Amino acid sequence: MDAAELPECPVCLQAYDGGECTPRVLACGHSACEVCLVHLPKPFPHTLRCPACTQLVHYPHPQGPSALPKNIDLLRLSSLLQPKTNPNFNKTTNPATKIPKKTQDFMPNLWSHELYSVWKNWVLPENAVSVELDVKGGDFGCIWGRAVNLDDSLSNSSQLHVRCLIKGNQEVSLVKVGCFDESDCELDYGYLAKVMLTLCGMRDGERDELGLVLRASLRQRRLCKVYGLWYNEGSVYIVCERHDCGLLNMLDDWENGFFLGSKELSGVLMIGMEICEAVMGLHSEGLIAGVLSLPCFEFDDLGRVYISFNEVFVMCGRLCRIMAEAVSVKWKLDGEESKVSFKEYLLKNQTFVSPELLFEVLQKGGIELGPNCVRYAVGYGSDVWQLACVLLSLLVGKAFIEETDKYVFSLILSATCERSTGYMDLYRGWLEKVTNLLESRLGSEFVMIKEHLCNCLDFDPGKRPRVINIWKCIRELIIKPKLYIMDTLEQVVVKENAGHCLVLGELCQLLKETNKATQREMIGSSLEEKDASGRTDSDQPGDLRANRNFVEGLSKGRMKCINLKGHRDCITGLAVGGDYLFGSSFDKAVHVWSLQDFTHVHSYTGHEHRVMAVVFVDEEQPLCISGDSGGGICIWGIGTPFGQEPIKRLYEEKDWRYSGIHALTVSGTGYLYTGSGDKSVKAWSIEDYTLSCTMTGHKSVVSALAVCNGILYSGSWDGTVRLWCLSDHSPLTVLGEDTPGNVTSILSLAADRHALVVAHENGCLEIWGHDVLLTSMPAHQGAIFSVSMEGKWLFTGGWDKTVIVQELSGDDSDIDTTLVGSIACDSVITALLSWQGKLIVGLADRCIKVQYITVGSDDSHTKDVLNSKYGPYGRLL
């Protein structure tokens, strides 16, 4: 040994010196210093992992490492070598740090981790919202994307109530923000996966805008609450807070204006001040509505005015659609139908659109404006114009709305003509009429508010006052003597054009088309009744079609299936090794298929009873080991040619009450483990085929076994999982012993270095991290017979004839499960095995299916080979 290579602790890399860095020998034969052994994590009571080989070994308690023997040889060697060290010496490689073998995923990543972490908390549970049809009828109806229907022709229709169950059965409104078409996908995606795939299909601008709205609803009390995203029947909706107390519902006589006595005027001004506060709250979040109307403002339970995002999006979508109709060929040809439609829209919805926004919408719609048309940028001043119109409609009434409708209608005609020179004359004429209407309603003492409102209607948005100035003016009229607010309450928004306009945003630009089938898709025949009564879905924001390029690999590359037939009874176990697939069955045989082309290679037929399990042993001589219900174990050699007789037969000691092998596993340390009907776990030496140890403790049949990271896990019908140390087969701990409730049998286990997955007879799935239960969930409708885990993918199958595909993420202490989808099968699923991106499914109908997803032409070679030799998809007849 080189003098520079001093013996050192594999943890702290300090040379052993016989003092604080004294080497202590562990049960595996490796050494570490006393100080490091004290601070190493103890995954289970009285155990630790060797820092050199990661094997689980006993740790003396309470004596500590001082009870372990010193490594005298290392101390003697350290004293003989020179005490100098070379900074470039080679350090011993920790086997635990070996680069893991890269595995092929079952399917491509459906979404990025960053997108999932941002949006997962916004997804409401599937049962969070309920929809029911009230056939008693009423004067309003709640339909998709709209809380109140203002169409006079629909006044006698039925009510569709949408309730958010997680919020105390509170009525909510829904805004449709996306669709996901899964008709071409054979994988039945889960609820959360459908929402995430819809979000993935959106453009970045659409997602960013949606995020702005959701975050703004949390921070501003003047904006309606948005509870989250909800998926149903192919569509994703924003679930918004809803109250019956809309601004129009509370103001019975708004059409003729209010009698402006002192009390009545104070009430109207108070409402106006709260409307200003709501708009300021919207602007403080960097959002510009672009379209405001009386229905956009509602009262909460405390009588405060807030902005309804539901109504804003509805108005935006309606504006986009009505403008598309207004500038159509009919409109240019002076078609009366389009003119009437547009006038009725403006009148019935009390929608106000500033001139600059109107020109912008026309321009985005592909309509060429006149050469003399002066355009201004859309910004916060655009909402000031709409805000003034809302206040004027409260003060003046229907007369103001009619004059405004005529003005906007004429403005479109003027702006789209070739000359476009008369639009300023139209504006001045309209403003003069509005001023006269306002003077007739307000006395001389309200000069200040009249001036502010008229200035808000200036054609140039840069000359309009700020919202807070209107708020101050109204406040001074209400509170006397004047109480000035603090100077810090200046305009919240500093940059005039820095906001994001919703009506010009990504979401609303996609709201031009209407999905006529959405309501029928949602509640089926109940809505057909509704349609028969005369209701339409024209108020619905429309069909936002998700861009499916993100899942192109799943839509174009279909789920492929290869059927392997040969067994004559229910499949009980699957194993892969040595380029072969092994399947066991109740037919007392083990069949072998090639993993190259899935052709049938051989059959082992030496069992006298039903074969319950099969495993592959990767030794110098590869072995296939199978166990049967009579307690017999057959050890088969793998090679060419395959032998007809087993290399060795082993038999468990029979018990007249309990007998048979129910589970098999191997440890990689020279042992075969069997789970038996006699409630024990037995360890068999693969070297000499002798029984080495019998582990007892379970109170019923040992039905499942798994080995991982130096631990043997055994699951039983008694509902518990016991952990055993592989080094000496001593018991470590028991999981599920103190779990409250009825005992449910454990039927399958799967383990990796992060988690232990436990499947129960009642369809429940448990995930443990070390000895802590991280999550428990109902996964299947009936018993879960098999669990398989590969990398981040978790597969479960059982009595309900469905394979559930879940994605695992997180670490040992916080594992998150995402239901990606499910695969329907023709029979009960009795065995599962994931291998190299393929899912191998054993069924009770004697068939083994190999499921895998192909992208593009990646599987063309495999398909050609299978079709040329064995028919479509390699079917073995």
Automatic annotation (TrEMBL):
WD repeat residue numbers: 564-603, 695-734
Gene Ontology molecular-function annotations: ATP binding; protein kinase activity; zinc ion binding
Residues forming coiled coils: none
Limits of the Protein kinase domain: 129-478
Annotated region (Disordered), positions in chain: 524-546
Keyword tags: Metal-binding, WD repeat, Zinc, Zinc-finger
Compositional bias segments (type: Basic and acidic residues): 527-538
SUPFAM superfamilies reported in the protein's UniProt record: Protein kinase-like (PK-like), RING/U-box, WD40 repeat-like
RING-type domain: residues covered: 9-54
PANTHER family tied to this protein: PTHR44489, WD REPEAT DOMAIN 86
Name the record gives this protein: Preprotein translocase SecA family protein
